[in-house]
């Protein structure tokens, strides 16, 4: 019955939604195992998992779980000395990289106030080995290709194959182009059969071309012959290819054994990454439905604040507020059909299942969910034609099972309890079932149309009425759930709105017992009072909000005015300080120039100049505390943090003169400084380290060189006629220069020829750190004779 209730409440659809956020197949399998727990410590742990995943995703973005594969079979093969396929080795490297990135994602760059205890504990034990990663990536280029540099032997063999193939091509081309041979050929071309070079010979001239026949055309008019002159050369290539295959197998075995040596670590990683994928799937799902972590209790208390059913479109779902299990243990919800009663009790049940499985729920903070030994639900029309059961019988069959299986820690949900039979008997039966559960203090929520159940809730302690709101004016439900207010049938009001004759309505009222009429009228008055109170409350909230907004606006404007005033004052001080500093610099330059020109100046005049300079310094002293003073000095400084040492270029702030440090500081924090031809002791605090003239000249010269170099780079390089080694050296240097010049795309002209240059350049470009992509040229770009390169 518990499993059936999960289906009725559509918990399986929640699982499917969470599964869609898992990145790996093993993670998806883990999500599919998700189940509820009644252990409060276990549930709190699962909730904390989801909370940490949600928080770290918000802080750092999505976790790097891409590229993870199930590598257990590959690892086991390597552990027993078997050869892992190239695809398998790449999967192992991808998984190792994902593990390392995942570890860094969780453990690095965390804010001090952030703690991810569960995730950090899991990631601490993740095994990473970048050396193995890099080795596999450097050797295996793709599922079909091994790098030439995988080993020196492989490089030698492939180089020998290239040389032999080149010699074969030259030899066979000379045969094909020979005037004595051409008349025997069907076409003047060279082709391949069984990995050997052959020429197409006309059938009637078979005996004129000495060699081995490998194939013939479908019509039999053409025979493909390997000329005897290149048979031995082809044999040598075949032998080299056998050697190449053996060397590749040796390299793959070496890599496989490396993976096999870390079998235990790789399998442990697989389990950890699966668990992390599962946890992050829960976190991503929580973000997708704007969910929060509910409070968890084991007392049977349910408090849902603005809960939204997760399977209803977020744009149309109406939030509900409901509480149960504290002041009362039984909730009876009444109201019209399609008014939202069923959605309300489904939300209660589904939220309970989600909370007990460690999932966050789409509601507001303050929502609380209880743990139950089981959630039982009888919801919807489950009439069984095969068993010849009526709707009432089908529901009663479920209810009988529920009543047998429930215990005092269960949650029970009934939809339209007692419906499908005589109203009087159905209402009496429903009250009896609810009383039985109520006596056992089992948390129960039920929907009904029966007025008898409304009255029962009003007169029984621990039982509470609830209703879904209905707007009689628009004849439509609002889907709002009201606790403590019994629902009204509204049959007479709806009929009247739809135009039914008043006399018919009055006669219908007369047939109802007076007590029932008075009860319905009382409900009507309660509903009117509730609506009036809510309207007044909304108006009070609106006025309060407007008042707070106006107050906040006033405070903001006042703060802005103060900030503007302070800014104007500071800017004025700053400008004044700049003017004074400029004047000081100009004065110092004048004095320096006078000394340089050796103008006649007697002692009195020299003293007068010093007095004037001191007077200027005194006038600017007032501005020394200006908050921008330090900024102005720093505009020309080279370094304000590195300690001063002998030979450093400095600026003496009090004199605004440049000089050089001659000695270390003494006990009085003074250092000897040379200013021009004068040596003097000054306070270390009065000095700021600056760039020397040599440094400035060097930086300027370097900038000019770089600028000249980067502006003169062409977007095309031509290496035709060069051998492969020379071409690659030239291209390597050119790519660096082109990348520094911010070129997006360049062309390498290598010509068509035998294809050696093209192939060598292709292998080189695959490994270049600056290259994002490359391709052969289009027809209008030079075709196979040109390679187009795009930079990162």
Automatic annotation (TrEMBL):
InterPro entries: DNA_mismatch_repair_MutS_C, DNA_mismatch_repair_MutS_core, DNA_mismatch_repair_MutS_sf, MSSS, MutS, MutS2, P-loop_NTPase, Smr_dom
Domain of life: Bacteria
Its EC number(s): 3.1.-.-, 3.6.4.-
Keywords: ATP-binding, Coiled coil, DNA-binding, Endonuclease, Hydrolase, Nuclease, Nucleotide-binding, RNA-binding, rRNA-binding
Coiled coil: 505-626
Smr domain: residues covered: 717-792
Residues reported in the UniProt entry to bind ATP: 335-342
Cross-referenced SUPFAM superfamilies: DNA repair protein MutS, domain III, P-loop containing nucleoside triphosphate hydrolases, SMR domain-like
The keyword rRNA-binding is assigned to this record: yes
SMART domains per the UniProt record, alphabetical: MUTSac (SM00534), MUTSd (SM00533), SMR (SM00463)
Record's function text: Acts as a ribosome collision sensor, splitting the ribosome into its 2 subunits. Detects stalled/collided 70S ribosomes which it binds and splits by an ATP-hydrolysis driven conformational change. Acts upstream of the ribosome quality control system (RQC), a ribosome-associated complex that mediates the extraction of incompletely synthesized nascent chains from stalled ribosomes and their subsequent degradation. Probably generates substrates for RQC.
Subunit structure: Homodimer. Binds to stalled ribosomes, contacting rRNA.
Protein name (Swiss-Prot/TrEMBL): Endonuclease MutS2
Source organism per UniProt: Sedimentibacter acidaminivorans
């Amino acid at each position: 019955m518990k499993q059936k209730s999960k289906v009725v409440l559509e918990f399986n659809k929640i699982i499917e939604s969470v599964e869609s956020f898992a990145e790996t197949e093993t993670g998806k399998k883990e999500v599919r195992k998700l189940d509820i727990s009644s252990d409060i410590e276990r549930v709190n742990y699962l909730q904390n998992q989801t909370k940490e995943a949600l928080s770290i995703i918000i802080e750092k973005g999505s976790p790097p779980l891409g590229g993870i594969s199930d590598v257990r079979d590959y690892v086991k093969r390597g552990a027993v000395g078997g050869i892992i396929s190239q695809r398998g080795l790449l999967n192992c490297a991808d998984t190792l990289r994902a593990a390392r990135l995942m570890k860094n994602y969780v453990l690095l760059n965390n804010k001090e106030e952030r703690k991810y205890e569960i995730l950090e504990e899991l990631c601490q034990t993740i095994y990473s080995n970048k050396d193995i990663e890099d080795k596999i990536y450097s050797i295996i280029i793709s599922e079909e290709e091994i790098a030439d540099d995988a080993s020196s032997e492989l490089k030698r063999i492939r180089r020998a194959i290239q040389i032999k193939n080149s010699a074969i091509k030259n030899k066979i081309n000379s045969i094909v182009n020979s005037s004595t041979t051409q008349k025997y050929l069907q076409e003047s071309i060279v082709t391949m059969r069984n990995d050997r070079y052959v020429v197409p010979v006309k059938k009637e001239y078979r005996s004129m071309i000495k060699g081995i026949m490998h194939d013939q055309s479908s019509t039999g008019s053409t025979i493909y012959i390997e000329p005897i002159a290149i048979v031995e050369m082809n044999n040598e290539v075949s032998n080299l290819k056998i050697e190449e295959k053996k060397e590749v197998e040796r390299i793959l075995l070496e890599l496989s054994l490396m993976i096999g040596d870390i079998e235990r670590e790789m399998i442990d990683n697989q389990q950890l990454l699966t668990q992390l994928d599962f946890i992050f799937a829960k976190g991503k799902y929580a973000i997708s439905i704007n969910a929060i972590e509910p409070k968890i209790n084991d007392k049977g208390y349910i408090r849902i604040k603005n809960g939204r059913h997760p399977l209803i479109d977020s744009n149309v779902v109406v939030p509900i507020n409901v509480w149960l299990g504290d002041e009362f243990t039984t909730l009876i919800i009444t109201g019209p059909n399609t008014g939202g009663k069923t959605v309300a009790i489904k939300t209660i049940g589904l939220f309970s299942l989600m909370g007990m499985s460690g999932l966050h729920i789409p509601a507001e903070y303050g929502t609380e969910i209880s743990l139950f030994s089981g959630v039982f639900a009888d919801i919807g029309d489950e009439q069984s034609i095969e068993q010849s059961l009526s709707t009432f019988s089908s529901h009663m069959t479920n209810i009988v099972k529920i009543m047998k299986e429930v215990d005092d820690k269960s949650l029970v949900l009934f939809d339209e309890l007692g419906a499908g039979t005589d109203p009087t008997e159905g209402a009496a039966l429903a009250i009896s079932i609810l009383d039985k559960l109520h006596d056992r203090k089992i948390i129960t929520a039920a929907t009904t149309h029966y007025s008898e159940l409304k009255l029962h809730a009003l007169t029984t302690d621990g039982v509470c009425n609830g209703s879904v709101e209905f707007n009689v004016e628009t004849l439509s439900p609002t889907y709002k759930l009201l606790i403590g207010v019994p629902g009204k049938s509204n049959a007479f009001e709806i009929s009247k709105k739809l135009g039914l004759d008043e006399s018919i309505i009055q006669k219908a009222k007369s047939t109802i017992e007076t007590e029932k009429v008075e009860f319905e009228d009382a409900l009507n008055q309660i509903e009117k009072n509730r609506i009036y109170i809510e309207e007044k409350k909304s108006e009070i909230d609106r006025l309060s909000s407007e008042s707070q907004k106006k107050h906040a606006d006033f405070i903001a404007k006042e703060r802005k005015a103060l900030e503007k005033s302070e800014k104007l004052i500071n800017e004025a001080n700053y400008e004044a300080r700049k003017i004074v500093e400029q004047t000081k610099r100009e004065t110092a330059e004048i004095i320096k120039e006078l000394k340089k020109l050796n103008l006649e100046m007697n002692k009195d005049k020299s003293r007068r100049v010093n007095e004037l300079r001191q007077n200027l310094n005194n006038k600017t002293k007032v501005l020394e505390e200006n908050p921008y003073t330090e900024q102005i000095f720093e505009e020309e400084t080279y370094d304000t943090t590195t300690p001063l040492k002998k030979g450093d270029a400095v600026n003496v702030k009090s004199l605004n003169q440049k000089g050089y440090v001659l000695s270390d500081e003494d006990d009085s924090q003074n250092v000897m400084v040379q200013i021009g031809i004068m040596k003097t002791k000054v306070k270390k605090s009065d000095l700021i380290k600056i760039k020397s003239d040599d440094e400035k000249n060097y930086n300027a010269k370097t900038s000019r060189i770089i600028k000249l170099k980067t502006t003169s780079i062409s977007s095309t390089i031509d290496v035709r006629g060069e051998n492969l080694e020379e071409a690659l050296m030239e291209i390597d240097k050119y790519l660096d220069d082109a990348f520094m010049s911010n070129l997006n795309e360049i062309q390498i002209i290598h010509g068509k020829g035998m294809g050696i240059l093209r192939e060598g350049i292709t292998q080189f470009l695959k490994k270049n750190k600056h290259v994002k992509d490359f391709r052969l040229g289009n027809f209008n770009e030079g075709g196979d004779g040109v390679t187009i390169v795009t930079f990162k």
